[in-house]
UniProtKB/TrEMBL annotation, chains A, B:
Keywords: Activator, Amino-acid biosynthesis, Cytoplasm, DNA-binding, Methionine biosynthesis, Repressor, Transcription, Transcription regulation. Residues 2-59 form the HTH lysR-type domain. Signal peptide: none annotated. Its main location: cytoplasm. Pfam families: HTH_1 (PF00126), LysR_substrate (PF03466). It is found in: Cytoplasm. It comes from the Bacteria. This is HTH-type transcriptional regulator MetR. GO terms for biological process: methionine biosynthetic process. The keyword Transcription regulation applies. It comes from Pseudomonas peradeniyensis. GO terms for cellular component: cytoplasm. PROSITE patterns: HTH_LYSR (PS50931).
Amino acid sequence: MIDLRHLRTIHALRDTDSLHDAAERLHLTQSALSHQFRELEERIGMQLFVRKSKPVRFTSAGLKLLQLADQVLPLICGTERDLGKLASGTAGRLHIAIECHSCYQWLMPSVDEFRGAWPEVELDLASGFAFAPLPALERGDLDLVVTSDPVTLPGISYVPLFGYEAVLAVDNHHPLHGKPYLEPGDLASQTLITYPIERHRLDIFTRFLEPADIEPAQVRTSELTVMMMQLVASGRGVCCLPNWALHEYSSRGYVTAKRLGENGLQARLYAAIRSDMLQVPYVSDFLLTAKDISFATLEGVNVVSGLAI
Amino acid sequence: MIDLRHLRTIHALRDTDSLHDAAERLHLTQSALSHQFRELEERIGMQLFVRKSKPVRFTSAGLKLLQLADQVLPLICGTERDLGKLASGTAGRLHIAIECHSCYQWLMPSVDEFRGAWPEVELDLASGFAFAPLPALERGDLDLVVTSDPVTLPGISYVPLFGYEAVLAVDNHHPLHGKPYLEPGDLASQTLITYPIERHRLDIFTRFLEPADIEPAQVRTSELTVMMMQLVASGRGVCCLPNWALHEYSSRGYVTAKRLGENGLQARLYAAIRSDMLQVPYVSDFLLTAKDISFATLEGVNVVSGLAI
DNA sequence: CGGCCTTCATGAGACAAACTCATTTTTTTT
DNA sequence: AAAAAAAATGAGTTTGTCTCATGAAGGCCG
């Protein structure tokens, strides 16, 4: 019944105050608009504006339609602009969510650099404990999710960012201090502190403890890394973190890092994005930047990690 | 470029998960939708959804369009419904503003009765000190304004509601008490309390004092009628009010009402509405109700007004 | 693994909607 | 009151949108 054409017309009519001028602005003839209005008015069964008056006066129905136009037309225009930008690849949106708090540490430099290189791109960063990021990525509410858990989903691609080693933080005078590396059984008597997420998303369980069928003496959770570190340092538990996240604490001698298993618990972070975004220039650029920067940031970590092997 | 048709189509596609079913829901053929998408994708230069997949997966561009559809389509539907209701006259909107606080007194019963008779009509009442109500009425933000000052405007009609007499409230032991009616000069020595609006909208000035070129000794303002009454009762000033607004105070002997001029200061309240709304059934019904009720409410007032003539 | 079934794409043609042109009617201006 | 401007109307044409018929591509299942 109502069409965008009608909204554009009535909007132009308010601005120009005459059918003739409105037609000109819309690159149409006065006749076209006259027909258009007559037909629409027939359909809704009411007049939309008062003819015999200058300036034009709208009826209640016309005003209602105008209010609609004022709401809708900007939305349409905005989306058309956004699509244009998306197609040209010069600008767009990059809403990022990260699954783990510690990721801020290496992500922030990438984000800063990216902001400079692509000022047109609307960049947003959200920490993802509050909601499920992957469905949001599928829905289009998010554009990039940093995760260590690449579950296969149609239309979602995972770009490897960098590998890291998950290590165990223990206090400096811990009994396990002497061992070159820890075995699952060593944790049977320990309190394990984790982020408050499901077990199947924690490598320490899925890839270390569960294969050996070991359960820690106690499991407690904390949302904040610093809080975890306090607990560990005071001997109230141990916790498993990426080596680069632990580095700032272990390198200062606040806690000690211990390798998990003979070869260490190697893991990998991925950027999850909708597959079609891979082609978008600013996205691929961001991924390159992120890889570069994470590499530069973490290079030192692996050497000076304080990892007591 | 983008058309409502496209929004409806992509919206249906998400719900049905296949072009064929989406076409059915839209009472079109699968071919039509296929053509439609191909053409739109050509225009924006990107794919909108991934063909070879079930359920359908939208690209970033498609998701953007979907978000637009979710915003726009409800607005369109809503307006179409509203227009339908407006045309049939069975339901609609009646946003009322009143220019003076005291009007609540007689308006509320009308509003209550109206609510019962026209439950479908979205009724809203706003006190109008905060903004200029007549431009809002012209714009369509308001539908009815109660005013005592019918300035001629194209497209705005004034429906007389009822006449009233503006009288002066004075304290019970006031020196002017003895006079059968007051003359302008009597106010030269008085403190006049008014609502905080421009003088040219106050009858006491435009129709009583200014013609005689008299200025009160002092003018002070108050927003609330009860506050005015307190000031008057304690002898700190006099104030001019409609007789029906003063009635509840004067009839209890709290203050005394005095006629202004030999024949009294007669005034009239009007309902201002956009002319085309006069035809709408619920509007004319409201006007009749308001007239009836105000008449019934005020009838007693004029008799038992305590007006000391 | 090949045939079948479903889904989507494509081209040609039909139909309708929307526009233009020419003209008349109405309104505004001077 | 006449002239000018604006809007309405009717006929005709263009454009766009749909359908029909058909072809191509995936996915399912014996």
